[in-house]
Amino acid sequence: xxxxxDGTPRDAEPRAGQCLRTLLRETGTTSxxxxxxxxxxxxxxxxxxxxxxxxxxxxxHRAQGREVTTAAGLAPGDELHPVQEALVEHFGFQCGFxxxxxxxxxxxxxxxDVDDLDRRLKGNLCxxxxxxxxxxxxxxxxxGPVRETGAGYTGGGAAPGADTSPAPTAGADGVGRSVxxxxxxxxxxxxxxxxxxxxVPGSLVLRVIGSPHAHARIRSIDTAAARAVPGVVAVFxxxxxxxxxYSTGRHxxxxxxxxxxxxxxxxxxxxxQRVAAVVAxxxxxxxxxxxxxxxxxxxxxxxxxxxxxxxxxxxLLHADRTPADRVAEPHRNVIASLHEGHGGDIDAALAExxxxxxxxxxxxxxSHAQLETHGCVGWLDDDGRLVIxxxxxxPFLTRDEIAHIFDLDPxxxxxxxxRVGGGFGGKQEIFAEDLVALAVLRTGRPVAYEFSRxxxxxxxxxxxxxxxxxxxxxxxxxxxxxxxxxxxxDTGAYGNHAIGVMFHSLAESTTIYRAPVxxxxxxxxxxxxxxSGAFRGYGLGQVVLAVESAMDMLAExxxxxxxxxxxxxxxxxxxxxxxxxxxxxxxxxxxxxxLDQCLDLAQGALERGNGVDAPDGWLVGExxxxxxxxxxxxxGHIAHxxxxxxxxxxxxxxxxxxxxxxxTHTVLRQIxxxxxxxxxxxxxARFADTDEVRHDTGAFASAGITVTGKALHAACLTLRDxxxxxxxxxxxxxxxxxxxxxxGVRTPARIVGFGELVAAAPAAERTEEGLVGDGAEYGDLxxxxxxxxxxxxxxxxxxxxxxxxxxxxxxxxxxxxxxAQCRGQIEGGVAQGVGSALYEEVMIGDDGRVIxxxxxxxxxxxxxxxxxxxxxxxxxxDDLGPFGAKSMSESPYNPVSAAIGNAISRAIGxxxxxxxxxxxxxxxxxxxxxx
Length: 931
Fold this sequence. Notes:
Blueprint: E1 2-5, E2 8-11, H1 20-26, E3 45-48, E4 51-54, E5 67-69, H2 82-89, H3 99-106, H4 111-114, H5 117-120, H6 132-143, H7 184-189, E6 204-210, E7 216-222, H8 224-227, E8 232-236, E9 267-268, E10 274-280, H9 283-292, E11 294-299, H10 306-309, E12 334-342, H11 346-352, E13 355-362, E14 375-380, E15 386-390, H12 395-405, E16 413-416, H13 433-443, E17 447-450, H14 453-459, E18 466-474, E19 480-492, H15 498-505, H16 508-511, E20 517-526, H17 540-558, H18 562-569, H19 595-608, E21 619-630, E22 639-645, E23 651-655, H20 664-676, E24 683-687, H21 703-731, E25 739-741, E26 744-746, E27 751-752, H22 754-760, E28 771-777, E29 784-795, E30 802-811, H23 819-838, E31 869-873, H24 896-908, H25 919-927
Parallel strand pairs: 1-5, 6-17, 15-16, 19-20, 23-24, 30-31
Antiparallel strand pairs: 1-2, 3-4, 3-5, 6-10, 7-9, 7-11, 8-10, 12-20, 13-18, 14-15, 14-17, 18-19, 21-29, 22-23, 22-28, 25-26, 26-27, 29-30
């Protein structure tokens, strides 16, 4: 078959039933991405004779004699299509995995499409941006430059209230400016490589068969027929796997999670759990072999209800685990619990309160739904070391655990990443690397394992569903007197992140308010559901929903403005975060405080309105919620970095953190550009590779700036000081008068060139590459950041449909290192919060099976679902963060659902308690007593 791809003739013979996406990638066109393989997400979009199609559902044979255009071929040579130029200009991507497909679709739009843009974009999903910059970019590309007048914009990408003053020596690429990511042009063309975009020659393909049962013991596995399939190289079962228990969840301390997982187990505890793996020369051979594996199961009783799981007589999931494995009460399916009080008798305090409110809120399972699925490719290098290129947030922690599982020296394992297509906490796990490591070590061949979208739903992790009961007591003026919380968390079949999420969920969500008497009771239990894990907010969003909803009930009961109720009860700078002043989280310090500004900014914007009216007859309500978060994880988050000056005046930056849409790699470059007064063209970055630096805990807990950024800032300052000292010694001048510039180090005597500096520097400070500065951060102290979300919604009383009329979020981000990127992080967090509030739910059937394991039935918000968010920054400067910055990746998500729930409740006149607040649930609430 002959066809043309991006102007180049190509000959290929598609297999029977092959889709165009796989044919393109197999023939070297990796600008086409895989997000769903079901025609739901648009990451694979291409033009066929000028018409946009989803290549994952387009039969390959239809390309015969046709012109196929991918994002890489929308413009000649290195040029960009106007849509791509606009996406770069408007920061219209974060992880960027959806962007090539988005570019292709939008490249066909004309002026008539702009008025119906949301509908025209419905076939292309973006999980990161919240769509606002994409819509702006498309409008500008089609209509020409249009000055933005929308919410949260003051020019140059900054939002009102943002402190955008750069560091004193910052050039055009320095901190405080909306500097575009270095790979932006390659991202929009689909040319920036992701995990599977640089194939390893000779790679085998790995496929997995999963359990059809929620709970079963494997009696036997017959793999003979599978092994006989032509092209099959190996079949692995529990008999081939190390008998080492571990957790898929990764933290700086591996003992933070229970050792309850085996690579391949004789007992399966949820539908979809991997049972056996096939490694073959082709995907077709591997999949055919999987269908031939015969497994004899002894089906065991299953428990899906977390309340029932801890009751006497419930089936036990991990009866052989002990407290030494970090499973507190295996005889009750309880991994961990918290039962503590502060300040006195909670029941007495509530009884003495002038007013009390109470309610029980239920939160659902939410998929991370990042568009790049989990996966990795592994091989043995020339020295026989195991090398894994993975779509992970934690390369160093993955390396260490792989070494632990296979009894290897960590130096014999290298883990690195390409650009990662989204994570949101879901890639703070080991879901593919362990199996690929087994296959590589046993076969000696390169092996690739790329998850399908169905596997993402069935075989990775989801947000912890929780039942949270809250009772608040207050005096007649609205001052809190007591807070009582009872929480039950469902970790599913395995305890990855179960302990940390439970404890963290009750931390800043409760300590944001001064309540002299508190009682916290919580348990996290095993069930035979799909495992839960790390998710944006790490448990805070679930409990913030309950606490902030109860605060809204209290405001209604006392007829107090909800913003004023927060002002009356929120902690202020200098407060102890626990009423009896114990040492819990003693590493938290008040580096800065911006909640007061956030409340004022959000309230002012809500009162101003935005001119968007509700449809006639719809009910309107306003809601708000506040949230507090620590700026990094507790008990240490470590980053080692280096900055190296070469003789030619270029700098090499080394850091271990990962770029997956968080913008960290851009900000790291900006830090170096500020310190050395150079542009990005003088900076070479080597990031996310265990061979490059000593250690980095990972890209989670919003630690990119506050940990790795601080460490790299220290490395750059050390290098700058060494450059100044060397120049001063060479010229006989005072070091304090030496200034690092783009041309060298300027001293009162002369400018010392870079080559001379490197040659003259002390040998202990030099490598073969150049003059080096080291920097590290250990996370010994953490600051606090705040977000306030306010919203106005309309509810159709006939159907329960909810429409957001106005979205506002004010953020205490400290010094804003890159205003456009930070604004985008907030908008993306809000969009994900909207999805959790109104649409998204991983549904589990009575047999434990995920009912909706595809985007067609799992409702990721589309462009039409997410209106522009007005983003407002408090003016603060943090004592701990580099240049005064705070973290702002997870926190924007946390207050959104509560604010939307409060607005719905005020609109319909009855409180909603169960997420998502879907139209059927809202309709039922209306029928049960609403307006």
